[in-house]
Amino acid sequence: MSKPLSVPFETTLLVRDTCLCLHVQRAARRLARRFDEALRPVGLTNNQFSLMMALNRPSPPTMAPVAALLAMDRTTLTAALKPLERRGLVEIGTDPADRRSRLLALTPAGRSLLAAAVPIWQSTHAEVEARLPGADADQLRRDLAALG
């Protein structure tokens, strides 16, 4: 019987201390919790806020550009839209130019709720950026975008 392979504990510590993926995931979870808590008074999660912002356009978009902007697949986007649609915040309609495509639009109630949420996002976002001492938030955004 052969001895099972194992990873030295030192490697575990190395990954814990240096893995960019782990550090970005941890930061993303902390940020998500912060924005979820901030947006709770208006009944939105940070994901719902981002989705509604992605729909805040002069003309209703189809699913593909919204999914691309949010870096999610269409199935995940469809699932994320359902609770917003049930609450009357989003409408999903058929594209008259291509009956196979769906148009996504904020309802008047959705626009009003988004307008109430934006000042909350603005203040929370300013607090988050202020907690990045010595960091250049624009450079951080560029660096993260370069990973895409």
UniProtKB/TrEMBL annotation:
<protein>
    <submittedName>
        <fullName>DNA-binding MarR family transcriptional regulator</fullName>
    </submittedName>
</protein>
<dbReference type="GO" id="GO:0003677">
    <property type="term" value="F:DNA binding"/>
</dbReference>
<keyword id="KW-0238">DNA-binding</keyword>
<dbReference type="InterPro" id="IPR000835">
    <property type="entry name" value="HTH_MarR-typ"/>
</dbReference>
<dbReference type="InterPro" id="IPR036388">
    <property type="entry name" value="WH-like_DNA-bd_sf"/>
</dbReference>
<dbReference type="Pfam" id="PF12802">
    <property type="entry name" value="MarR_2"/>
</dbReference>
<feature type="domain" description="HTH marR-type">
    <location>
        <begin position="17"/>
        <end position="148"/>
    </location>
</feature>
<dbReference type="InterPro" id="IPR039422">
    <property type="entry name" value="MarR/SlyA-like"/>
</dbReference>
<dbReference type="InterPro" id="IPR036390">
    <property type="entry name" value="WH_DNA-bd_sf"/>
</dbReference>
